[in-house]
Amino acid sequence: MKIYSKEDLNNYPLSLTYDDVSLIPLEISQVKTRSEISTKSHFLGFDLSVPIIASPMDTVTGIEMAKELNNLGCVGIVNRFDSSLNELFKNGKAQEGITAVSVSLTAEEKLISKTAESNLIICIDTANANNAFVLKKCEEIKSKYNVKVIVGNIAHGSTLKQLVNAGADAVRIGIGGGSVCTTSVQTGIGIGQVSSIIDTYFEKLNQKLDIKLIADGGIKSPGDVAKALACGADVVMLGRMLAGTKETPGEVIKYNDQLWKKYRGSASFGVKMKNEFIEGEETLVPYKGAVKNVVNGISDGLRSTMSYLNCNSLEDLNQLNNYAVLSTSSYLERLPRK
Ligand code: IMP
After folding, report:
1. In the chain, what are the domain boundaries?
2. Fewer beta carbons within 10 angstroms: which end of the chain, N or C?
3. How many A from CA of 278 to the centre of ligand 1?
């Protein structure tokens, strides 16, 4: 079997996603226990214990979620669709324990200045970062305020330098891969997440660009989190994996003797509530209880990956160079059977 390097994966003729690859341990691990492994990192001025960002979706990140993730050493970007932002700035200044705020392309100056004054990260929440108006907005914000800005999304690294030149501090990588996303179906745009991340990683490396890479969309399990980081992402953005937890906005629904919460795309009809172009779906996900349990599960999985791969830090994992490309039957063999 061929062992693929990152560069081999980047030159692979087909677009690849998480289920197409796996990570191969090739050396004797020196890790004694998982607890000695560090999953710490720095992200735009914040110290993270686990490299997780909650997506700025109205069924994922409101104030309660953002605060709890901050307690857990992660980041939650408060969504711009419900009343969370008004609540957040009710007394003029941002509430304690919040790191991030998402804004639209047409966001009011007042919101941006309050966000910047409170030293929060600004996420310009658009579907396509490769747009002159998004770059202009980013340049404007960066020229007026001393603030960190996330832009998104991209599916390929070809424009990374232009995003950096516009002042972007981080970029969300992923078009078409989100679990409630219908962008690819509606538009034919998008490539597999592993290919998107690796291509952008090499663009950053080869051009020596200073920008954080966020793997956004399509992550279903702690194993996918590990794969995203091993492919070169600095941090992962999660929607569905965090949806359904106690801290997400929205009611717990009892249906068919089970508990559920709503999860929907930012471009779904439920969010837009008008006759516009729809690029997202709406669904119910099982109620999962406290988000802390989900974060701990990811942290445990990540430590275990790193122990197999003899990685003591996320930087080591980031530089992994041993991957398998899976046949369909070897992918299926990996799944538990009844
Ligand atoms: P998930 O973790 O696979 O559920 O993906 C979450 C990501 O999907 C978000 O962070 C967004 O990048 C993306 N997304 C959210 N809403 C929509 C939508 O309505 N259409 C397309 N993509 C979306």
Report:
1. 6-333
2. C
3. 13
Give the separation between CA 46 and CA 53, rounded to whole angstroms: 12
Structure tokens at 320: 């992994």
DSSP element (H, E) containing 259: strand 258-264
* Residue 338: per-residue pLDDT: 87
DSSP label at residue 265:
-
Question: Please, what CATH class does the domain formed by 6-333 belong to?
Answer: alpha beta
Strands (E), 12-92: 21-23, 41-43, 46-48, 52-54, 75-78
Mutate to test the pocket of ligand 1, among 266, 276, 283 (most ligand atoms within 8 A of CB): 266
Query: What confidence score (pLDDT) does residue 91 get?
Result: 85
The angle at the Cα of 314, spanning 319 to 2, to the nearest 5 degrees, equals: 35
Q: Is 265 in the pocket of ligand 1 (CB under 6 A)?
A: yes
Say yes or no: CB of residue 61 within 6 Å of ligand 1.
no
At 75 the three-state DSSP class reads: strand
DSSP state of 18: G
Q: Is 244 in the pocket of ligand 1 (CB under 6 A)?
A: no
3-state secondary structure at position 13? coil
Which of 59, 180, 269 to mutate for ligand 1's pocket (most ligand atoms within 8 Å of CB)? 180
DSSP class per residue in 104-161: -TT--HHHHHHHHHTTPEEEE--S-S-SHHHHHHHHHHHHH----EEEEEESSGGGHH
Nearest residue (by CA) to ligand 1, atom 22, is 181
Q: What is the mean pLDDT of each run of 10 residues along the chain (338 residues)?
A: 98 98 97 94 97 98 98 97 93 90 93 93 97 98 97 98 98 98 96 98 98 98 98 98 98 97 96 91 98 98 98 97 97 92
Does ligand 1 have an atom closer than 6 angstroms to the CB of 154?
Answer: no
Residue 217 near ligand 1, beta carbon < 6 Å: yes
